[in-house]
Amino acid sequence: DGGITQSPKYLFRKEGQNVTLSCEQNLNHDAMYWYRQDPGQGLRLIYYSQIVNDFQKGDIAEGYSVSREKKESFPLTVTSAQKNPTAFYLCASSIGGASKNIQYFGAGTRLSVL
Amino acid sequence: AQSVTQPDIHITVSEGASLELRCNYSYGATPYLFWYVQSPGQGLQLLLKYFSGDTLVQGIKGFEAEFKRSQSSFNLRKPSVHWSDAAEYFCAVAPSGTYKYIFGTGTRLKVLA
């Protein structure tokens, strides 16, 4: 089955700790995205990558970092600099190319602070 | 600045009743338009999309949406709601020629038995 796998489903962060959220896709998509979802605020773009070894900041990149070493993987690290990390994080991918770009989503990771 | 407005935060309808969820966008040209649905604790599933052509678009689960250029709107409709339609619905806009989506804040649908 083709799709996007996010892990873990639930994650807890201690004060001062960095945590990494995994996102893997087997859709052979070039582009991948990370969103943060807070109640009543919709989805906000953190980072996106159009191609391997390249990524761009989204609207709320501060306190987050990413890498794109493989086409199928786009991990997100929530660093200790992110003071309010509690949220639902969604990863998405699309075939790439700016024309008719449909994004497909994973099931999400819920991050909470201990 | 580009924006998407979903004016209804919550909507409650009875099972079997018709449904319309509103979406308005602010953008100079015609963007690509999408509706997604999200069940609690889950990711987003694409319901339907509009790129060009016929302004009435059919999607999955019996949903349809109509693009009205003059009103900058892309409202989602369903003639008869089922209890399983209870979820949160998001409208999204992608300015043509870009990767980035702009999401509305969502409308949470409750269905009464």
Number of helices of chain A: 0
Q: What does the average pLDDT of chain B come to?
A: 93
Q: Strand count, sense and closure of the main sheet of chain A?
A: 7 strands, mixed
- State the helicity of chain B in percent bands: under 10%
Number of strands of chain B: 12
**Helix content bin of chain A:** under 10%
The percent range for strand residues of chain B is over 45%
* Strand composition percent of chain A: over 45%
- Tell me the span between the first and last alpha carbons of chain A: 35 Å
Summarize the helix and strand pattern of chain B as letters.
EEEEEEEEEEEE
Task: Find the structural class of chain B using helix and strand composition.
Answer: mainly beta
In angstroms, what is the radius of gyration of chain B?
13 Å
Sum this structure up briefly.
The complex is a heterodimer of chains A (114) and B (113). Chain A has strands at 4-7, 10-13, 19-25, 31-37, 43-51, 54-57, 64-66, 76-78, 87-94, 104-105, 109-113.
Overview of the molecule:
The complex is a heterodimer of chains A (114) and B (113). With 114 residues, chain A is an all-beta fold. Chain A has no helices and eleven strands. In chain A, the strands form two sheets. In chain A, strands 2, 4, 5, 6, 9, 10 and 11 form a seven-stranded mixed beta sheet that branches. Chain A is globular and about 40 Å long. By secondary structure, chain B is mostly beta strands. In chain B, 0% of the residues lie in helices and 51% in strands. In chain B, strands 2, 5, 6, 10, 11 and 12 form a six-stranded mixed beta sheet that branches. The radius of gyration of chain B is 13 Å and the shape is globular. The mean pLDDT of chain B is 93. Classes of the chains: A mainly beta (114), B mainly beta (113). At the A-B interface, strand 5, strand 9 and strand 10 of A face strand 5 and strand 6 of B.
